[in-house]
Write a structure and sequence with these properties.
The complex is a heterodimer. Chain A is mostly helical. Chain A contains nine helices and no strands. The radius of gyration of chain A is 18 Å and the shape is globular. The mean pLDDT of chain A is 85. Chain B has three helices and no strands. The longest helix of chain B is centred in the C-terminal third of the chain and has 49 residues. Chain B starts with a helix and ends with a helix. The chains are: A mainly alpha, B mainly alpha. The interface between A and B is large, with 49 and 36 residues.
């Protein structure tokens, strides 16, 4: 195996592109946006190659950049949306959003599960940033709570509670959704 | 099927999912951008959060200024009134004759 300092930028991109792209697509729920963010992540890595080579845990560092870039992209996109001043000021992150509007088809989801996954991703979109991050990293990226704790700079206990709260909120949202559909 | 089964089924839709493949030209696109001098964009502050804090701080400052103003005006009124009373008392004492 090559030393970290000998690894070329191309190898870094090849090694981590799937991880970065999949994390970004789960957050952004749009292929084109995820590709933009993936490029941004690697440009940031390119400009901090020195710190890249000093990292003890490279994948944690890359995940952290990807999560931050994805959340930042969402913030910027939301800021661009034309909303009235009061709506922006008093909008609640946990506000009800119509899950029927779910339109995102994750390219990796099995065909027979696409409909359920679409509803789930729409519900994930309604979560607060920290809960969304913990849920995606745990349930989509299948990272351990310890790894997520390192990425989010939290204790494993805090991550566990974030995942539990995210699941509780999702359950409530899904319950309302299915109730309104008369199921 | 009851609602809980639907919810569980929804959660399980993530199981067995494959990894999505990024564009095969990703590396070339990144290198193109780097060669064009594209720098990583600056992170934005959380606008909503910032506005909420700014609003909360300005409202609490206005309330504090009002409370201070009301308290100091009342204090002045009390001290002026007590000064008037003491002057009146002095006058009364000075003009009261003991027979």
């Amino acid at each position: 195996m090559k030393n970290l300092s000998e690894i070329s930028f191309e190898e870094i991109v090849k090694q981590h592109q799937i991880r970065v792209f999949n994390t970004a697509i789960s957050f952004l729920q749009n292929k084109e946006d995820a590709e933009d963010v993936t490029q941004e992540v690697f440009i940031e890595i390119y400009h901090s190659l020195d710190s890249f080579r000093r990292q003890a845990n490279v994948s944690t560092w890359i995940y952290r950049i990807t999560v931050n870039r994805s959340l930042d992209f969402i913030r910027k996109k939301n800021a661009k949306k034309k909303q009235s001043f009061l709506t922006t000021l008093f909008s609640n992150d946990s506000g009800e959003i119509n899950l029927d509007k779910g339109h995102f088809d994750h390219p990796g989801i099995l065909l027979e599960k696409k409909e359920s996954a679409r509803v789930l991703f729409a519900a994930i979109n309604c979560l607060k940033e920290s809960q969304k991050t913990a849920f995606i990293l745990f349930h989509v990226e299948e990272l351990s709570q310890k790894e997520i704790a390192l990425i989010m700079d939290l204790s494993p206990k805090a991550v566990e509670s974030l995942i539990l709260r995210a699941k509780t909120h999702l359950r409530e949202k899904l319950k309302n959704f299915y109730n309104n559909r008369g199921i | 099927m009851d609602i809980n089964n639907h919810i569980n089924e929804t959660f399980e839709s993530l199981k067995g999912m494959h990894k999505a493949e990024p564009s095969p030209f990703l590396f070339d696109q990144v290198i193109n951008k780097i060669n064009r001098g594209v720098k990583p964009s600056a992170y934005s502050y959380n606008g909503n959060q910032f506005l909420r804090w700014a609003l909360a701080i300005s409202v609490s400052t206005i309330i504090s200024i009002n409370i201070i103003a009301v308290v100091s005006i009342n204090y002045k009124k009390v001290s002026v009134a007590s000064a008037e009373v003491s002057v009146k008392n002095e006058l009364y004492n000075a003009t009261t004759y003991n027979y």
